[in-house]
Amino acid sequence: MVDIHTHILYGVDDGSDSKEVSKYLLDQAKANNITKILLTPHQNEETNNIEELKSKFDSFIEEFKDYGIEFYLGSEIYYYDKMLDDLDNNKLLTLNNTKYVLLEFSTLIETDIKGIVYDTFMRGYNPIIAHIERYTYLKLEDYYEIKGQGALIQVNSKSFLNKAYKKQLKYLLKNNLIDFISSDCHGKNRDIDFVEAKALISKKYPEQYDRLFNDIPDFIK
Does the 2-220 domain belong in CATH 3.20.20.140? Predict the structure, then answer.
């Protein structure tokens, strides 16, 4: 199983703040049968810190090389006006040095996600929308249009425990619109738990189970 959205790389953002917390999260990852993990620290207009992240990633994989998990580096990019220019100028991390980018948007300020997805795709990138269920200003039909503009959709595993997202997740699953279910883990208070998501999907949407939990995405093959 693959987790494409995590904040396990310690000491770089609001995720894990120590080797011990990262170890705790990796223990949980193993308990959830995760064998490949993308480390996706936050990046935004103020944190174009690629060399620092690469250095910390190299140290991380050396520290945890005997864990039986394959690690890959990327980032979760909070959208800003010059983001595409910064991507073109190699100031931001894509997922495993491919053309796939994990994009985050404001949950409070209504954002033209469809337009941004279109622009990103037309510049040659493959946008993955992080935790799309959190953008509650989106209408249900917007999910189809976002996919139609070239995006892939990621939702968080623990959102299946949150009644506030029940309508969105049901719609996304019913219409086969989810591409990735990820932990978005940050630490001991936001850890890794796929139990509820796996139970629901195996019971109500079994035809999607293998695709969502067993397939390996192209950008880490």
Answer: yes
